[in-house]
Design brief:
The protein is of the alpha/beta class and 308 residues long. 40% of the residues lie in helices and 20% in strands. The protein has nine helices and 14 strands.
Length: 308
C-alpha cells in the first residue's frame, strides 16, 4: 500500500533538487521534505537555507537533510541525482554514467522497504526511468519520469510569446524522447480553441519548435545548467499525485500497446493521480507525427540495448 505520510524525499541536493524543493515549499504540496545527497554537508546547508523560507510558505512544512532510511515511509521519492549535462553534451551521452549511479541509488531506496511512487528527473530521463522500474521491481505505473512536461511548457511559452496569447490558453504537447527526437503534436495543438495551424504557417511553427528543442543546450551554454523549469515541472507532477488530481500530463510512462509500442518508457500524455499513472492516452497522431514518434521510440530502444 502506498504510504500517506505526506513526506517527499528528494535524492540529489543539486540545483534541480533544490529548485524542486523550493517549488514544493512555495506551493504547500507536502508537510515534510527530506534532502539526501552524497555530500551530506551540502544537503544540510540547503535544508537550512530552505527552512528560512518556511515562515512565508502557505502551509507548515518540515525541511531537513536525511538518509535512505527516510525513504521507508515516504509517499514520493524524487530522484534528481546524477551527472549534469555539460555544454555541447547530448542527453544520451550521460546514459552509461548515470545508469550506474541510478542502480546504486534504487538499490538503497528499496532496501529500506520503500513502497511509494518514484519520480525520475535525471537525464536521459526515459531510459533512466526504465532502469528505475526494473531495478526497483515496483509496478510500472508507480515509476514516473518527468518526460516531456518541461518540453511542453517550453513550447507553450514560445507560442505564447510568438502570438501574444496567454500561455494558459495554449494547448500544445511535445511527446517522445526528452531530447533530440522529441516532436510537437501540431495536429492537436490549439490557442483559445483555435487550431494552431490556422494561426501560423507550418514553417513558422517548425522554427518555433526548433528553438524549443535547442533551449536546454542554449541555456546550458549561457549559464551552465537548467533547473528552474524542471523544478516547477516536478512540482506539477507531484501536485497531481499528492492531490490525486487525475491530471493529464506528458510524463515518461511505460507503453503497453499504445501507439503500437510496448515495453518502453517515453514521453506521452497520461492520467496521473495518487496511485501513479492511471492510464496512457493514445492520441490519434497524423501520418507525419506517427512516423516521428516511431523514430523516437526506435532511438530509445537502440540506445537502451547498447548499454553494457
Amino acid at each position: 500500500m502506498i504510504p500517506t505520510t505526506n513526506r517527499i524525499v528528494i535524492i540529489g541536493a543539486g540545483a534541480v533538487g533544490c529548485s524542486y524543493a523550493y517549488a514544493l515549499l512555495q506551493q504547500g504540496l507536502t508537510g515534510e521534505i527530506v534532502l539526501i545527497d552524497v555530500n551530506k554537508e551540502k544537503a544540510e546547508g540547503e535544508a537550512r537555507d530552505l527552512r528560512d523560507a518556511v515562515p512565508f510558505a502557505p502551509s507548515p512544512v518540515t525541511i531537513r537533510s536525511g538518509g535512505y532510511e527516510d525513504c521507508s515511509e515516504a509517499e514520493l521519492v524524487v530522484i534528481t541525482a546524477g551527472l549534469a549535462q555539460k555544454p555541447g553534451e547530448m542527453r544520451l551521452d550521460l546514459l552509461t554514467k548515470n545508469a550506474d549511479i541510478f542502480e546504486r541509488i534504487i538499490t538503497e531506496v528499496m532496501a529500506v522497504g520503500f513502497d511509494g511512487l518514484i519520480i525520475v528527473a535525471a537525464n536521459p530521463v526515459d531510459i533512466l526511468t526504465d532502469i528505475t522500474q526494473q531495478v526497483s521491481g515496483l509496478p510500472a505505473e508507480r515509476v514516473i519520469g518527468s518526460g516531456t512536461v518541461l518540453d511542453s511548457a517550453r513550447l507553450q511559452s514560445a507560442l505564447s510569446e510568438a502570438f501574444q496569447i496567454d500561455a494558459q490558453d495554449i494547448q500544445a504537447w511535445v511527446i517522445g524522447e526528452h531530447g533530440d527526437t522529441s516532436l510537437p503534436v501540431w495536429s492537436m495543438a490549439s490557442a483559445g480553441m483555435k487550431d494552431i495551424r490556422s494561426i501560423a504557417p507550418a514553417q513558422e511553427l517548425d522554427t518555433i519548435f526548433q528553438r524549443v528543442q535547442s533551449a536546454a543546450y542554449d541555456i546550458i551554454q549561457q549559464k551552465g545548467s537548467t533547473h528552474f523549469g524542471i523544478g516547477m515541472s516536478l512540482a506539477r507532477i507531484s501536485r497531481a499525485v499528492v492531490r490525486d488530481e487525475n491530471a493529464v500530463l506528458p510524463v515518461s510512462a511505460r507503453l503497453n500497446g499504445e501507439y503500437r509500442e510496448s515495453g518502453i518508457y517515453i514521453g506521452v500524455p497520461a492520467v496521473v493521480g495518487r496511485t501513479g499513472i492511471r492510464s496512457v492516452m493514445d492520441l490519434p497522431l497524423d501520418e507525419t507525427e506517427t512516423r516521428q514518434f516511431a523514430h523516437s521510440v526506435r532511438t530509445m530502444r537502440e540506445t537502451k540495448h547498447a548499454l553494457p
